[in-house]
Design a protein that fits this description.
The protein is an alpha/beta fold. Helices cover 42% and strands 17% of the residues.
Length: 299
């Protein structure tokens, strides 16, 4: 499948001579959508090459990454283990229902124990416990994920000045920045409160990937709406209006916040007149069912 470009039209930006396209990464794959496919792609190849038959990864109960790894395991012939933050709640939410239907085995850790997810000693214990699985970090972010995400920019056939993207663990942004090799401007929208910490993490990811440093990017940390997976009425109102106007499905954890921030920046004159902007839709739409169930709202 392809991730086409969809141009959005609105007097808000067209009066400023701004052109806006959306890179529809959400259309890349029916169940491993958006940046998750980009991140997993080369990890799957590495796992096959190293002759692993099992993938093990980490995430929360509504994690796009958990759902994507489960789907990838089913499609490409891997057993899958999901190490989940928090306690089990039954019945399973839509994300975990999908993951188990795709064959994923779920294990739960207390939030305190879950903090060990990057500790080498703990990872060795997990490797022994589950008979040498291929371990993918939370969110899928590692050097192979960065490599996969560089291909987002290689797949944009138009000229543009800015590329905008939501950010969770920083892997997608790192790949976009590395893929551009210092050209154009990159604007990242962290979904987490206090997202400034991602700057150092993104720099480290890029350094591990290609040893380079780039300064053509920045993080806009004003649009987290209270923190990761938190929403406010103004965000939901914006999403409903934006989706209706542009026939573009969004979700409230990443893409809803990114587009809210992007439109607000355009309104405030952040982008020079005549700018050509590409916004990356990173997928994650599977999470909407869980949000609607948990909050009792329609998205």
């Amino acid at each position: 499948m392809e991730a086409p470009l969809q141009q959005l039209h609105s007097p808000l930006w067209e009066e400023q001579g701004i052109a806006l396209w959306v890179k529809r990464e959400d259309l890349l794959h029916p169940t491993i959508s958006g940046n998750k496919w980009r991140k997993i792609k080369y990890n799957l190849q590495e796992a096959k090459q190293l002759q692993h038959d099992m993938l093990l990864t980490f995430g929360g109960a509504y994690s796009n990454h958990i759902a994507a790894v489960a789907a990838a395991g089913q499609e490409f012939g891997f057993k899958t283990i999901g190490i989940l933050r928090g306690e089990e709640h039954l019945p399973l939410n839509p994300t975990l229902t999908f993951a188990t239907s795709a064959g994923m085995e779920l294990h739960y850790l207390s939030r305190e124990a879950y903090r060990q997810k990057s500790d080498p000693v703990y990872l060795t214990q997990l490797s022994d416990q589950f008979r040498n699985p291929y371990i993918i970090p939370e969110g899928g972010t590692n050097a192979l994920a960065v490599k996969g995400c560089t291909e987002i920019v290689a797949d944009i056939p138009i000229d543009y000045d800015y590329i905008c993207c939501a950010s969770g663990t920083g892997g997608t942004l790192a790949g976009i920045i590395a893929g551009l090799e210092g050209k154009r401007q990159v604007v990242g929208f962290p979904a987490l409160k206090g997202g400034e910490f991602l700057k150092e993490e993104i720099e480290q990811l890029i350094d591990r990937y290609n040893g380079h440093y780039y300064d053509n990017w920045q993080l806009i940390t004003d649009y987290h709406f209270g923190g990761y997976a938190k929403v406010k009425p103004e965000l939901l109102d914006f999403m409903r209006s934006f989706q209706q106007e542009h026939q573009l499905p969004l979700e409230p954890v990443y893409t809803g916040k990114m587009f809210y921030g992007l439109v607000d920046l355009i309104r405030k004159g952040y982008f020079p007149k005549g700018s050509r902007i590409v916004a990356v839709h990173t997928g994650g739409l599977q999470g909407n069912a869980g949000f609607q169930e948990r909050l009792g709202i329609a998205l």
